[in-house]
Design a protein that fits this description.
This protein is α/β, with parallel strands linked by helices. It has helices spanning 5-24, 26-41, 54-59, 88-93, 99-105, 125-136, 147-152, 195-216, 232-242; strands at residues 46-50, 71-73, 114-118, 140-145, 169-172. Helix 7 links the parallel strand 4 and strand 5 (169-172).
Length: 251
């Protein structure tokens, strides 16, 4: 069987996007890493939020091998994954006004903490209000989004604003509107989304920059090891115990 032409095209598209982000967002990623390091050094807590498939990149930095132990997932019932039934309900909840406020009011977030909000379009009420309200509470907010949506679509929030308008730092994923990299004869809709690949890379690069900053400041970053290597469980138990006041995925 010969190699798939379309599979190769997807890799090329993803690599092209990753290269663009690496080159064009380097300064913003470094700034985001410094903000994370500032929060860690000051004793603050770290949170990540995403709705729908944007939640995948948020989940990817929480409680994982090679990850920063202090990163917590901020969850909103019904919007975190496609396990919600019916699945379109999650998309509908992203457009509900006031939901973000209710979530933040019942969350452990407080002034001095940092929240990373992942939203590809950044146009729905939930991520926009989440950013607005988090900043009003005194949090540092980092938005990971595609600026193309803010430039070429209409906001679904009453203010007319997008996620990027309410963040301290914005990381642009460069994903085109529609999030599909390929077309082919006989297929009526574009296909092969690359946002998860690119956004997860942005998140990991941001945390790598944070680790670099912490080490330069003489602060040991609390990292997690794989539980599938010898000594991993013991290592993680110690790290989580030492930082239990800033970790919320254990209780």
């Amino acid at each position: 069987m010969s190699d798939s032409k379309l599979a190769g095209q997807f890799f090329d598209a993803a690599i092209g996007l990753l290269t663009r982000v690496r080159d064009e967002e380097a300064e913003s990623i470094a700034a985001a890493g410094a903000a994370v390091a500032d929060t860690v050094e000051a004793g603050g807590r770290l949170f990540a939020f995403g709705a729908g498939h944007s939640s995948l990149a948020a989940q990817d930095v929480v409680y994982r091998a090679g990850g920063l132990a202090l990163m917590n997932l901020l969850t909103v019932p019904g919007v975190v994954g496609v396990d919600v039934m019916p699945a379109p309900l999650g998309s509908a909840l992203e457009r509900v006004d006031g939901l973000a406020s209710a979530v933040l009011d019942s969350s452990p977030l407080t002034a001095g903490d940092l929240l990373v909000i992942v939203s590809l379009s950044g146009r729905n009420a939930l991520p926009v209000e989440m950013a607005q309200n988090a900043r009003a509470l005194g949090l540092k907010v980092i938005g990971v989004t595609s600026v193309a949506y803010a430039e070429n679509t209409r906001s679904r929030h009453a203010s007319g604003g997008f996620l990027r308008d309410h963040c301290d730092i914005v990381l642009d994923s460069k994903i085109a509107i529609g999030d599909a990299e390929l077309t082919a004869p006989g297929v009526e809709a574009p296909f092969a989304p690359a946002s998860t690949v690119v956004t997860s890379a942005i998140m990991q690069s941001m945390l790598a920059a944070a680790v670099e900053q912490l080490v330069a400041r003489g602060v040991e970053p609390p990292m997690l090891r794989s539980g599938n290597v010898d000594g991993g469980h013991e290592w993680n138990g110690r790290v989580m115990t030492e930082n239990r006041d800033r970790i919320f995925y254990r209780h």
